[in-house]
């Protein structure tokens, strides 16, 4: 069943009204009719079962029932993604949102080729829309936040210290794997650092270690930047959730 997010200011006396892109999608893509049911989410983990009552002025929906959304993982993963080339970031956001990440932060690293500069605002806006579309498609109970700005690596490391734990896949790490990390992890929030195409510089790994971030290996093969984040997220949520 199709799912849409709404702002609580659009909810009054048992009714919700949708406008804009959602209205257009419901009317022209789904070709919905009065009497059909849709699932709406308030973005705070509550789902509303609704029936379309009118398609005249926007999409008017009658609330039939509400219940907590059961699709959100208990483990909250923040993905700190080194800026990749081309449109790889869009793929990373789409798939990691589908998998269940809580938040995605773009990170400027020493070996990152991409520099957003003046394009940063537009890129972040587009990435947030991709996250919203992926959240709708996968039935999430919230729209994961795409960080409000691109962080420098040192600032991302400082931010991650507030989480219950953090890991950084590194091709030169040979001993500690995800299994070992998961076995000893007792918290609810995890930071995952993924490098760009060129990987992390040794100085960045050293800084991460100094701040309690655990270098791990993802196996004998070196994964692409767009594969590493998805793989790590999927394994963590499978093991912990």
From TrEMBL:
Signal peptide: none annotated. CDD domains: RsmE-like (cd18084). One of its GO terms (biological process) is rRNA base methylation. Coiled coil: none annotated. Its main location: cytoplasm. The keyword Transferase applies. One of its GO terms (cellular component) is cytoplasm. Residues 21-58 form the Ribosomal RNA small subunit methyltransferase E PUA-like domain. Residues 72-236 form the Ribosomal RNA small subunit methyltransferase E methyltransferase domain. It is an enzyme of class 2 (transferase). It is found in: Cytoplasm. It catalyses: uridine(1498) in 16S rRNA + S-adenosyl-L-methionine = N(3)-methyluridine(1498) in 16S rRNA + S-adenosyl-L-homocysteine + H(+). Its EC number is 2.1.1.193. GO terms for molecular function: rRNA (uridine-N3-)-methyltransferase activity. It comes from the Bacteria. Belongs to the RNA methyltransferase RsmE family. Specifically methylates the N3 position of the uracil ring of uridine 1498 (m3U1498) in 16S rRNA. Acts on the fully assembled 30S ribosomal subunit. NCBIfam families: PRK11713.1-5, RsmE family RNA methyltransferase. This is Ribosomal RNA small subunit methyltransferase E.
